[in-house]
Amino acid sequence: MTTPPAGIQNRPALPLAEACCAPLLRQPLTARQAADLARLLKALADPTRLRLVSLVAAHEGGEACVCDLTEPLGLTQPTISHHLKVLVEAGIFTRDKRGVWAYYALVPSAMDALSAVLSTAP
User: Fold this and answer.
1) Chain mean position to CA 24
2) Coil, helix or strand for 64?
3) SS3 call for 104
4) Per-residue pLDDT tens over the stretch 56-81
5) How large is the angle between the packed helices 108-118 and 31-44, nearest 10 degrees?
6) pTM of structure
7) What are the domain boundaries of the chain?
8) How many CA atoms lie less than 13 Å away from 80 in the CB half-sphere?
9) Residue among 99, 100, 69 at smallest CA distance from 84
């Protein structure tokens, strides 16, 4: 993968390293953990973004560009790009610029961290 252009940040999936070891239902989250988790959940709390996560993860090679997503979602390129930007900023997707196209891929550790925080397993 290439380095993202200036202004595009690939943040860690969840800056909840401590929270992955302290599930929400076993001990209270710190204020920072709660804010970080809320940011992730807010990014996912949109039907279009949930569909994007599913479409990109299931896409051949585990990555897709906006051009691959407009038809299945029935939305315009600018709308899809906005939702993808939110997902990248939340650390759920990475963005890899190749020529004029940007390809998006799921950050597996983002879903793993979310799963760990929400887990009820001991």
Assistant:
1) 20
2) strand
3) strand
4) 999 999 999 999 999 999 999 999 99
5) 120
6) 0.76
7) 19-118
8) 22
9) 69
